[in-house]
Amino acid sequence: MSSRTSHTVLVFLDPDYVNGRLADPEKPQLMATDLGATRGDGVFESMLAVAGHTRKIQAHLDRLARSAQALDLEIPGQDDWRRAVQTGVAAFRSDNPAPSPELDEAVVKLIVTRGVEGAAAPTCWVQVSPVAAAGRRQRETGIDVILLDRGYDSDAAERAPWLLLGAKTLSYAVNMAALRHAHKQGADDVIFTSSDGRVLEGPTSTVLLANVEKNDGGATVKRLVTPQLDSGILPGTSQGALFAAAKAAGWELGYGPLKPQDLVDADAVWLISSIRLLAPVNHIDGREIGTPALRKQLTAELNELFAGIE
Ligand code: PLP
Questions:
Q1: What band does 6 get if pLDDT is binned at 50, 70 and 90?
Q2: Which of 109, 178, 188, 204 could form a disulfide with 127 if both were Cys (CB 3.0 to 4.6 A apart)?
Q3: Residues lining ligand 1, CB < 6 A?
């Protein structure tokens, strides 16, 4: 493996290998007739490993199971995934010694396809790869986003479950097209809205906003709000973990519904996800959100809470 130019490590879940089967990422590994390739038919998860520890792994394994269930896919048990992740992360760290403790991070993806056409078994593997520098930078610099209509109303998930709106499926071509559209407009990212004017999510992230107010007694009240989880969005594991930590630290919590104006009026807005973590939003459709000083202060506070999450 040391002769590879790629930094990526692949571990296939294979009944003959109890800890997973390491595979060469420079060699073809999938059949051309795999339904993941021909139809985007499958599910995935992306997690962050820090210093060899894969964060929030239980929440990700639970969401993988829910996504698989939405697609009627039978997948291996959580212990099989955990062992394969351990194999992959250990191999990645021995292949790619981190230049400093802050850079000892890796993206751990769990991928399931419906398998080869005509076969009864899914294809399952773990991919461990470096964190993109751009994502890391955006945690510091913040991002400019545009609002884009996703074309579904906020009841579509409930009315039409076959749209798989709350599942993390391999069919991310629409999400990637939205990001390219934003980049062409000079923006970094996207917040999707529903056709009935609700704030939904980013193509790869959850939306959060914060408001800071004084209550009648003069005390400062900090409130963290995210769109309703049943509006056809993917329930974020980062949002869930951060909300629990923020509650314990005295923040008030809220779950939409949110309109675009609520974002513009907020003291701070973030896109949050497992790999990029909290990316503060500087502008939405060209309008500045809050003030740089308050954005920075609230981001630092939430980063500290998030850093304590296992
Ligand atoms: N929403 C979508 C559509 C996503 O793809 C992701 C993550 O990739 C998220 C939200 C954030 O989820 P998590 O915090 O679990 O990474």
A1: low
A2: 109
A3: 46, 201, 204-206, 234, 236-239, 273-274
